[in-house]
Amino acid sequence: MANSKYEYVRLFEQPDNLLPQTWIVVRIDGRGFHKLSDKYGFEKPNDRRALDLMNAAAVSVMKDLPDLTIAYGVSDEYSFVFHPNCELFERRSAKLVTTIVSGFTAAYVYQWPKFFPDKPLQLSNLPTFDGRAVQYPNASILRDYMSWRQVDCHINNLYNTTFWSMVLIGGMTNVEAEKELQGTVSSDKNEILFSRFGINYNNEPEFFKKGSVVYRQYQLQEPEAVGTTTAHTQQDDEPISQLSRTQQEKIRKLRRKAQVVVEHVDIIKDDFWLRRPWLLS
Ligand code: ATP
Ligand code: ATP
Ligand code: MG
Ligand code: MG
Ligand code: MG
Ligand code: MG
Ligand code: MG
């Protein structure tokens, strides 16, 4: 029943509930961070403080939203993964995306002074993020998504490490370095790094090569025990919505209590997922 003659305007709002039982990935990305990183003097190619700040903001978001399973971050972007059982905001896309984007941005801005004590934020150059939600129908495709982001991290980091070595150590101009790198493959860049600058790319920090993965830490599985532990009981596989209220509450409590960790490891190979079976179950 309408409360006023204006109530009909609600009909213009479109539903945007995401499909049930799919993995939801909300990817956020810093807006104009190329310029922002110049403005606040980020070190090139990888400013450790800026990456630590991204990770600190991601940990805040993970702690705030127990429905999140895992997150992966590189450069000015972060992907947050909601479990298929997530019923937050009735899975409404805009609600999920905006809650993550504003929560992340608030945590990023709040913690900025801790990571950049000598570089106060200016109202005319505030960090902002955009975001989108994408649905993936099964764990295998979700893993391909995560692999896609980590491969991207590797490709960009190899390029950036080579580019900035040519500029900062080799004394080339940006244009000269860019021109020489055009059309090169990975082995060419590895060769340039090694022969000209004595840099073995393999020895670069894992933090830069692998990006950051954030997740709730329970008990690590021993690889040899993996075969037995991946066989879940029927109850484990049941959607959370079919569990009783007390069971749901128990799972939420466990998630809330679990320690949130940040690691710089390979998430493309099976090992990471086999050792942490709770992430995809
Ligand atoms: P858009 O608004 O389209 O996303 P953008 O300028 O943010 O534009 P991106 O493709 O997102 O472009 O790239 C982010 C850029 O931010 C990088 O290319 C790099 O220049 C800079 N950047 C982000 N994080 C760091 C960091 N930790 N250290 C140094 N530079 C960084
Ligand atoms: P939801 O997360 O679903 O939006 P909510 O608690 O934010 O829940 P809203 O319907 O958005 O609920 O209503 C916002 C509420 O916040 C108001 O009902 C009021 O209680 C409070 N509020 C917001 N702004 C003010 C203000 N300036 N002064 C006092 N109370 C306020
Ligand atoms: Mg963008
Ligand atoms: Mg960006
Ligand atoms: Mg980006
Ligand atoms: Mg409100
Ligand atoms: Mg309101």
Automatic annotation (TrEMBL):
Keyword terms: GTP-binding, Magnesium, Metal-binding, Nucleotide-binding, Nucleotidyltransferase, Transferase, tRNA processing
Domain Thg1 C-terminal, chain residue ranges per copy: 141-269
Functional description taken from the UniProt entry: Adds a GMP to the 5'-end of tRNA(His) after transcription and RNase P cleavage.
Gene3D superfamilies xref list: 3.30.70.3000
Taxonomic path: Eukaryota, Fungi, Dikarya, Ascomycota, Pezizomycotina
Homology family: Belongs to the tRNA(His) guanylyltransferase family.
Pfam families reported for this sequence: Thg1 (PF04446), Thg1C (PF14413)
Family annotation (InterPro entries): Thg1_C_dom (IPR025845), tRNAHis_GuaTrfase_cat (IPR024956), tRNAHis_GuaTrfase_Thg1 (IPR007537), tRNAHis_GuaTrfase_Thg1_sf (IPR038469)
Any one GO molecular-function label of the UniProt entry: magnesium ion binding
List of residues binding Mg(2+) 2: 29, 76
Listed name of the protein: tRNA(His) guanylyltransferase
Catalytic activity: a 5'-end ribonucleotide-tRNA(His) + GTP + ATP + H2O = a 5'-end phospho-guanosine-ribonucleotide-tRNA(His) + AMP + 2 diphosphate + H(+)
